[in-house]
Amino acid sequence: MTGVSDAVEQAFIAPRSLAGIGDPGWITQPLHRVSGWSYGHDPLIPRVLLTSPDQLTQLRLTPGDPDDPDWWTIRQARTADHPAWAATFQARTPVEIIAAFTDALTDPSGAPTASPDPFTTLQDAGWEPPRHFGGLAAPDGITRIERLGNPGSDLWHIETAVIRDPTIWRAVFTGTTPLHLIAAVTRALADPAPLMRDPRRIPGWARDRMTVHTRHIPATDVAFALERRISALTERHHHVANVAPTPPGPARGRTR
Fold first, then answer.
1. Which residues pair with 7 in a beta bridge?
2. With contact defined as beta carbons under 8 Å apart, do 90 and 63 qualify?
3. Which of 30, 59, 127, 217 has the fewest other C-beta atoms within 10 Å?
């Protein structure tokens, strides 16, 4: 039986857009350990650089001023099939939101054949056009998404902010970013499930706009959460590899 000493108190924060950054390893560890992204950063410099096995995509984490626009930057070079694209996330973006993007990016099954509309999941979750702005806003008005500009020079822009605070975090995607990656982010934003955080690290901003419930959960659930995530993503890779179609053999003619 699990005793009190085997449990730890955790905070569950909603909406998830206000939960704070979380553990960056939630993003970087799976990229390296599951998807084979190599690291080339200098241990004496407080930054992380990860590069995909095909050398086309790079993730850069550059800690600095929390209000800098590009703590997290993901860039992909131009290919024969798709133009270059870039995505940036500010410091206070919850890692689970960014991980939705990187998980979709590294999905071994590849991009869907039909490009999803990033707005659809949000509309299903009750997001509506905000007053005086384009795009969609969450029912609580805290997070808003817009597509700005003209075709060929447009940007997708997500912002979390409240009236009495400056912008809490912002994410920006070039218009060439594959839509299924942006849709993965909007699905993560629409998810009503709260995010778990250390109760000593509950963000200080917008406290009157968040709901926080604390409860004791098994210490192993906290200690091994990242390992379980890595195991699940590893299984995803193995499953896709195991169900890959077998190349067709030579056609067989009818014999008499």
1. 218
2. no
3. 217
pLDDT at 127: 97
Q: Are 103 and 30 in contact (CB under 8 A)?
A: yes
pTM of the predicted model as reported, rounded to 2 decimal places: 0.89
Amino acid identity of residue 246, one-letter, is: T
Residue where the block lists tokens 């694209």: 85
The answer to whether residues 116 and 44 touch, using CB atoms and an 8 Å cutoff, is no
Do β-strands 195-197 and 169-174 pair in parallel, antiparallel, or remain unpaired? unpaired
Two tokens, residue 31: 């990229």
**pLDDT tens for residues 61-97?**
998 777 777 899 999 999 998 999 999 999 999 999 9
Q: Is the peptide bond before 15 cis (omega within 30 degrees of 0)?
A: yes
Helices (H), the chain: 25-33, 95-105, 118-124, 179-190, 219-223, 225-242
Residue 188 CB burial class (10 angstroms; 0-12, 13-18, ≥19): buried
Q: How far is the C-alpha of 121 from the C-alpha of 136, rounded, in Å?
A: 11
Percent of the chain past pLDDT 70, that is, above it, reads: 90
Q: Report the run of H or E that residue 172 belongs to, with start and end.
A: strand 169-174
Strand partners, 73: 60, 88
Length in residues, the chain: 256
Is the distance from CB of 89 to CB of 78 less than 8 angstroms? no
- Domain map (residue ranges) of the chain: 22-191
Give the span between the Cα atoms of 221 and 124, in whole angstroms: 31
How far is 52 from 131, CA to CA, in rounded Å?
Answer: 41
d(CA 14, CA 47): 29
